[in-house]
Specification:
heterodimer; A: about 190 residues; alpha+beta; 6 helices; 11 strands; about 30% helix; about 20% strand; globular; B: about 475 residues; five-stranded antiparallel beta sheet; 9 helices; 22 strands
């Protein structure tokens, strides 16, 4: 089942990449995170998930360290109800305006295309292929279980491996976070 | 026979189907959320989002189903006690948890809004009305956006120079998203002021205790706690010229915050007719090898008199996994006083019974703590695991239980005090040969820098210096 969903995801990704999914960022620019060459880190975030917010400084550090090396960072809000105003205020509060392009995926096309399920969750693309999907790091071992400090910086390691043209040692990890609002609820019908 | 089975099966199925009707927000979910979640999940409170409307809850239907199913929410670490309910106790029944799951699986339907219970009303500002005295930290303390949790002691000089009896305390953090819990000590020695002055920032660090022998306390506060007056006959006592010391635990939240807490005191003129006494069940004989998954320590104390149990303060650090206090009753039964099956260092609650139960003379209290110092324990502060011994730092460990009681009967206080004094040896982990051995070995392990299995003169001096810093040591 898992394998099947990954195949579907990859199939969809190839498809979506062809019709180059376009998302609007909070500065009003169009972005096409799936159709780009090179290395792109997509991080699904939420303005009101404490786990997503606790990792905001980590996202800033990653951007500081890897944006100069050509990695593009996209921070994706996938709550259908998020407003541009709320996203701006949130970005300012958590300094996320220094962590990448902040985008809206209110209809969750990108969520479905790459198989995201919670915030925060990272998807790393190398020339359009998913080479890593999972947690940003393991600061949270579970809901409510916060380590003193992370023991593994998964996204950082994956980015380094890709930049060094090595295979990603741990291509899938389980992200701990807040479930992305489900569009199948009556609320959105 | 088979036909009978079939009939019974059909009947069971039918009743099952009826019980499994689809829950709706208006009819089934809102009443649970209003009663058990909304006190924190509303605008301006500590929770990260509000849950007052259908939209708020429906978009998080999956999250609600998951966090209630894991019993992560509502946050409450203790199992139900055999002796009664605790104040602020927050438990959902299995049926309520199942309702969240079924509601999510059905697509989070709104249902008929006519079924909605009235929106709960919450008092804004001071929950018990205007306090008799309001004390505020004189400067703000900055909490960084990231990094380890912060423990900090803040001194609020008490301007009062008269004896006060305090019936209730309300704590109001200015940055509720980062303040996790607070404990209120009283200091008449002036030591806390000195420690504060030595440090340029507001307050001073440390979490073992406040760094002095407290002359008293005013209880504590944890996320979700409501200010509830002490029971009839009891009051906290503030001696003249006492400073209030607030020991606060902060969680970095991803964004830099600044905290300036306020505390409201509600006085009573009536001197307490009963006095709480702490029964300390504390041992320093803790020495956990790295990789040890199941290190258990137990202490016991036989009650010489009947006691009314007001509450407990369980305490341990990061590798404690399970903690319980049992009471072996004179009638041969064993009652669970408190059990925290998934101890979490971040939830340093002070538990108080809503209706203080009595434990009779002759009962034996047993406090049992189990520690997991393996790599499998995500709360282990060391990666890879290291030997963990007793000590004041959060990376050390403790076996620590304070049971606050009111002794009953003639000479109750004296007899209890005497029994505690005889038991004090446990404070040093010397209650019996095994503890003595563990304790001595622990001190050796802790200060044996060159690893030769014994203490050199220099190492011994360091050990003595360490032991000198422990408050209350004789």
């Amino acid at each position: 089942m898992k394998r099947f969903s990954i195949i579907v995801t990859l199939f969809c990704l190839a498809g979506c990449a062809n019709d180059s999914l376009t998302l609007r960022d909070i500065d009003g620019h169009d972005q096409q995170p799936l159709s780009s060459t090179g290395v792109a880190a997509l991080i699904f975030i939420s303005a009101d998930c404490p786990i997503s917010n606790a990792l905001a400084p980590t996202l800033v550090h990653l951007h500081d360290d890897f944006a100069p090396r050509g990695v593009r960072f996209y921070l994706i809000h996938c709550d259908p109800a998020i407003t541009a105003e709320r996203a701006h205020v949130h970005a300012a509060e958590y300094h996320l305006d220094h962590a990448g392009a902040i985008m809206f995926d209110r209809d969750q096309m990108l969520v479905r295309a790459v198989g995201a399920s919670v915030t925060p969750q990272a998807v790393l693309l190398s020339d359009g292929d998913i080479v890593y999907r999972g947690r940003v790091n393991d600061l949270f071992a579970d809901l409510g279980v916060r380590r003193t400090a992370p023991t593994r910086e998964d996204l950082r390691l994956a980015i380094e491996e890709v930049l060094n043209h090595e295979p990603v040692a741990e291509p899938r990890t389980i992200a701990i976070g807040c479930d992305i609002p489900s569009l199948s609820t009556e609320l959105y019908k | 026979m088979n036909a009978l089975r079939a009939v019974i099966g059909v009947l069971l199925c039918a009743s099952f189907v009826r019980a499994e009707s689809v829950p709706t927000y208006s009819h089934d979910i809102a009443p649970i959320v209003y009663e058990h979640c909304a006190s924190c999940h509303r605008p301006g409170e500590a929770a990260p989002f509000s849950l007052l409307t259908y939209e708020d809850a429906a978009k998080r239907a999956k999250l609600l189903s998951r966090v209630t199913g894991k019993r992560y929410m509502p946050p409450w670490k203790a199992e139900p006690s055999d002796l009664g309910v605790f104040l602020d106790e927050r438990h959902l029944t299995d049926a309520q948890i199942d309702t969240f799951r079924r509601w999510y699986e059905a697509g989070a339907p709104r249902g008929d809004v006519a079924d909605l219970p009235p929106m709960p009303t919450f008092r804004s500002g001071w929950q018990l009305g205007e306090p008799d005295m309001v004390l505020t930290m004189d400067q703000s303390f900055d909490i960084p956006a990231e990094g380890r949790d912060v423990y900090r002691n803040f001194v609020v000089p008490n301007p009062g120079d008269k004896l006060r009896y305090v019936k209730a305390v309300e704590f109001r953090p200015s940055s509720p998203t980062v303040v996790h819990h607070a404990i209120f000590f009283l200091d008449r020695t002036g030591r806390a002021r000195e420690l504060d002055a030595q440090d340029a920032q507001a307050g001073y660090g440390g979490m073992l205790g406040p760094g002095f022998a407290p002359s008293g306390g005013l209880g504590g506060w944890a996320v979700g706690a409501q200010p509830i007056p002490l029971p009839e006959g009891l009051a906290w006592t503030i001696q003249p010229r006492s400073d209030l010391v607030i020991q606060t635990h902060f969680h970095p939240s991803g964004k830099a915050e600044s905290e300036r807490s306020t505390i409201g005191l509600y006085f009573t003129d009536a001197a307490p007719t009963e006095q709480m006494m702490p029964i300390p069940m504390i041992s320093r004989a803790i020495d956990i090898p790295p990789g040890e998954k199941n290190y258990t320590r137990e202490l016991s104390f036989k009650l010489p008199v009947d006691v009314k149990v007001i509450g407990l303060t369980p305490h341990a650090h990061q590798v404690c996994r399970d903690m319980k206090v049992l009471a072996d009753m004179p009638d041969g039964t064993t009652k669970t006083v408190i059990h925290i099956p998934d101890w979490d260092f971040n939830w340093q609650e002070q538990y108080r019974y809503a209706d203080p139960p009595t434990i009779p003379a002759g009962a034996t209290l047993r406090t049992i703590s189990t520690y997991d110092n393996s790599a499998d324990n995500p709360r282990n502060p060391n990666s890879p695991p290291k030997r963990i011994t007793w000590g004041p730092e959060s990376t050390d460990e403790m076996l620590f239980q304070i049971i606050r009681v009111v002794p009953e009967g003639a000479f109750g206080r004296v007899r209890l005090a005497l029994a505690i004094a005889q038991q004090r040896k446990t404070m040093f982990g010397l209650d019996g040969p095994s503890n003595k051995e563990i304790y001595q070995k622990m001190i050796t392990n802790k200060f044996d820098a060159d690893g030769d299995g014994q203490l050199s003169a220099a190492e011994r001096a360091q050990a003595q210096e360490f032991l000198k810093q422990i408050p209350g040591r004789r």
